[in-house]
Amino acid sequence: MIKRIRNPFKFDEEVAGEFFCGRENDIDELSDHIFNNTNIIMFSKRRIGKSSLIKEVLENHTEKKVLQAHVDIYSVSNTRELFTKLQDGIKMSLSYELTTIEKASIMVNDIQEYFKNSKISMVISGTPELKIEAGDKNYYIAIENLFSDYFNYLRAKNLTFVFAIDEFQKIVSLPDFEKIEETLRTIAIKRKGLGSFVFTGSKRNILLGMFNEVSRAFFKLGSEMPLSPLDPDTFYDWALLRFQRKNIFLDRTAFRHLYDEADGETRFIQQVCHDLFRKGKDASVIEYSIMEEEINQLISKKSYIAQLFNKYTVPQQNALKIIVSCNGSEIYGKEILEEYSITKTSLQSAMKALLKENTLFKEDGVYIFEDVEFKLWIKKEIKKG
Ligand SMILES: Nc1ncnc2c1ncn2[C@@H]1O[C@H](COP(=O)(O)OP(=O)(O)OP(=O)(O)O)[C@@H](O)[C@H]1O
Ligand SMILES: [Mg+2]
Question: 2.40.160, 1.20.1550, 1.10.10, 3.30.450: which CATH number matches 305-384?
Answer without folding.
Answer: 1.10.10
